[in-house]
Design goal:
By secondary structure, the chain is of the alpha/beta class. It has 9 helices and 6 strands. The chain has 2 domains: 140 residues, HAD superfamily/HAD-like (Rossmann fold), CATH 3.40.50.1000; 68 residues, DNA polymerase, domain 1 (Orthogonal Bundle).
Length: 221
């Protein structure tokens, strides 16, 4: 079988941590007197910690000092770390292990492409770290999604051409990044939100082995 690269986002794709990011940002926004809706949260998915805080402040029309900015980022991350402290394998999203095992059995490239600086800790907590041949996270990139940098580094680390890579993403920014990288983009979530993706599935339970085989054998330019 041909070899392709499969690059997974982490938050909201492999584990159910998107809800913890939401809670921590909501608490922070509310503490500043800024309201924060689920629709706004959708725009923060896949977006770096710095850029997320900048957006919240823009929405609330607030300007703060650099020192306060740094301490708010620390505060958000401390709250987030509290949420993930007790995480275990039960927070792996349905059928993620089945797809990972299948790809590894078929000797496909498997990488992580996440904006999170906490990605490695989380993968360790849910005992999935050793499934990834390459890990690219928020500590490895200088440009946030929708910039394709994170996925292009992932492809490079796997030694696979970007056009032979497939990305699984739950965020609009991540789907855009995959498209810009000329990779196949697969949205995990709501098709209305992720309409720019090549394919969208509610979750991995909807993804059959036949579909993966089709991705592996299809040649792209
Ligand atoms: C992304 C999440 O994976 O990582 C965003 O979708 C988050 O919500 C971003 O802000 C950065 O994560 P962290 O863990 O470095 O704050
Ligand atoms: Mg995500």
């Amino acid at each position: 079988m041909a070899k392709k690269g499969f690059i997974f986002d982490l938050d909201g794709v492999i584990v159910d941590t998107a809800k913890y990011h939401f809670l921590a940002w909501q608490n922070l926004a509310n503490s500043l007197g800024i309201s924060f809706s689920e629709e706004q949260n959708e725009q923060l998915k896949g977006v770096s910690r710095v850029r997320s805080l900048e957006k919240i402040l823009e929405w609330g029309n607030k300007t703060i000092s650099e020192k306060d900015f740094t301490s708010l980022m620390t505060k958000k991350n401390e709250e987030y770390l509290n949420y993930i402290e007790t995480m275990d394998t039960s927070e792996i999203l349905p059928d993620v292990p089945r797809i990972l095992e299948y790809l590894l059995t078929e000797e496909q490239g498997v990488a992580l492409g996440s904006a999170s600086k906490n990605a490695r800790i989380i993968l360790e907590k849910v005992l999935l770290k050793e499934k990834f041949q390459a890990i690219v996270d928020g500590t490895d990139v200088s440009k946030a999604k929708p910039d394709p940098e994170v996925f292009l580094i992932g492809a490079q680390k796997l030694g696979i051409d970007p056009k032979d890579c497939v990305v699984f993403e739950d965020s609009v920014a991540g789907i855009q990044a995959a498209n810009i990288a000329n990779m196949v983009s697969i949205g995990i979530g709501d098709p209305k939100v992720l309409h720019e993706a090549d394919y969208v599935f509610k979750d991995f339970t909807e993804i059959k082995e036949e579909f993966i085989n089709q991705l592996v054998t299809t040649k792209r330019n």
